[in-house]
Design a protein that fits this description.
The chain has 228 residues and is an alpha/beta fold. The chain has a single domain, classed as Rossmann fold (3-Layer(aba) Sandwich). Helices cover 31% and strands 19% of the residues. It contains nine helices and seven strands. A seven-stranded mixed β-sheet has the order 3-2-1-4-5-7-6, with helices on both faces. Helix 1 (20-28) packs across helix 4. It is globular, with a radius of gyration of 17 Å. The chain starts with 19 loop residues before the first helix and ends with a strand.
Length: 228
């Protein structure tokens, strides 16, 4: 992607100074797990040793606790995590080391750079959990869920694949629901109120949820890629 065409990134990239051990993980482990940079097409299967049963992606994984739990529970699935915040990447690398996880690959930058490269229908599930709601109206164009990004998600998701979105900001929930439920390639899977009020049965809490930072009115939305 031409640098002049790359979407502008508004979030933080660095936080507090990292301890030596975390810096060492960024220097030594991250290069072995990083999705190769470039502009050409990318088949997720090529990132892993041996074919996986499926390929899941988490966009904006934060400190990585959700993806680490999923990867540990599903060793036969290949995970691609996207996160530009260096401190979060370092925290996930520590979990990968401690838990001996070998089914995670990382794009330590804006996910919108990676989406156009992924081959059509190559991803089976995408998570976007507690992304920045950008509550001020003048900032709504900074929200990750836009028609353009939904078009990209629809392109990379296999027929029947899932897009899961969680937030504790009701305005953000209405925004995402309005866009995704009205997208021609997605179908909202909810059958009743409990389907969006409770975390998915096979889900794991994020650190944001565990620390009680998420508000009481949490919303869990799931959309299925049409065509199955």
């Amino acid at each position: 992607m031409d640098p002049e065409e790359q979407p502008r990134f508004y979030g933080r990239r660095r936080g507090k100074r990292l301890r030596p051990g975390r810096r060492a993980l960024l220097e030594n482990l991250l290069p072995t797990l990083r999705v190769p940079p470039g502009d050409g097409p990318l088949d997720p299967a090529a990132l892993f040793d041996g074919k996986k049963a499926a390929y899941w992606m988490e966009i904006g994984f934060g400190a990585g606790e959700h993806m680490a739990d999923q990867a540990a529970a599903h060793p036969d699935i290949g995970f691609i995590g996207c996160e530009p915040f260096v401190n979060g990447v370092a925290t996930l690398l520590a979990q990968i080391t401690e838990r001996s996880l070998d089914n995670i690959r990382l794009h330590d930058d804006d996910a919108r750079q990676l989406l156009p490269r992924l081959t059509p229908g190559s991803i089976d599930r995408v998570y976007l959990l507690y992304s920045d709601p950008w509550p001020k109206k003048r900032h709504w164009n900074r929200r990750f869920v836009q028609r353009e990004t939904l078009d990209q998600l629809a392109r990379i998701l296999a027929p029947g694949g899932l897009f899961r979105f969680a937030t504790d900001h009701m305005g953000h929930a209405r925004w995402a629901l309005g866009l995704a439920a009205n997208h021609p390639e997605f179908q909202w899977t909810a059958r009743g109120p409990e389907d969006w009020r409770r975390r998915w049965a096979d889900g794991y809490p994020t650190r944001y949820e565990e620390k009680g930072l998420a508000g009481p009115a949490r919303v869990y939305l799931e959309f299925r890629r049409r065509g199955a």
